[in-house]
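Chapter summary example.
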Amino acid sequence: MADEAQESLGGKTPLEAAKTPTMDALAAQAEVGLLKTIPEGMSPGSDTANLAVMGYNPREYYTGRSPLEALSIGVPMMDTDVAMRCNFVTLSEEEPYEKKRILDHSSSEISTEDAAVLLEAVRAELENDMFQFYLGTSYRHCVIWTNGKVEPLTPPHDHLTEVIEDYLPANPAILAMMKRSYEILADHPINRERKAKGLNPANSCWFWGAGTKPMITSFEEKYGKKGVMISAVDLLKGIAVGAGMRNVIVPGANGGLHTNYEGKAQSAVDALLKDGADFVYVHLEGPDEMGHQGSLERKVQAIEYLDERVIRLVKEQMDASGEPYRMLILPDHPTPLRIRTHTSDPVPYLLYDSRKKLGDGKAYGETSAKKSGILREEGFRMMDVLLERS
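The structure predicted for these 390 residues follows.
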């Protein structure tokens, strides 16, 4: 959700330009400041950032992105296995493989149903005793490399529109699978249908995010609170599995711009007021996806949906219940439209307490957060602040 000032918005960021009356009303009673979620020297991934926001020091707990997703999918991992993310991406079609360009890291946010058919075609030819393929959600899938090695692999969303030659894996077996996947997928009936509909074809696998089996301390053991995760993204669900939190699956939640916002809000309230949860982590992927797509209009829309269709509904029901509550609102990392990928810059946060005034944020956005003079350097300690442990 965090971004840079846009000339077309009169120098405002998407968050500042979006109509967010609920967040602004909360900000008037809240502490607003900046939070550094990415430790110095670590990659600004959603994995690192969300671990930090959930209270887990990435330097201590991070073993790679894909292993966390493997937990969510229920993939069995041995200590000697390496998990890799298998994206379905859209590559340009005219050139030899090495000279192709990454056009879309999500293949028009391909449905899980289409992806399942394509993954089965890939699995039929590429799966063996060394590499096993597992279906995830939308364009995000998993490969387990038996007795594998953690090697540097490049995230595709970091190099949109660029020629892929300099970002291909050095390992010949992994590179061969990527090239063969293009041959399998380029003319697959599903992709012919997608192109006829004006959608980007999912014409290649892209492997990245390699890591080993994670070990995460239980959230309840760490904080003495029963936690719930509400997300459509396997990475977040995997962190929750590792942390012993309950995953609530919301029908229609898909990790895109048009997700079931109201269902997520209601599930959060129900978890807190009816199901005995002490803490709920509600994750929305839409603003990040729109940042990757470089769409200013849709990024603003995603932020407005968050305010109107999630935060407002949660606040109204919590207020009506009479239960005291605290709410922390923040992006996990910036995804600036200018570069269409993540950065390590601190993010604006809003900390609200229904029982007392914590500050006078006036409005919630990057500028007001910076003007506050508050910069919390260690993002993983923010959970202690939310839960009033520090």
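To summarize the output: Residues 52 and 380 are 4 Å apart (CA to CA).
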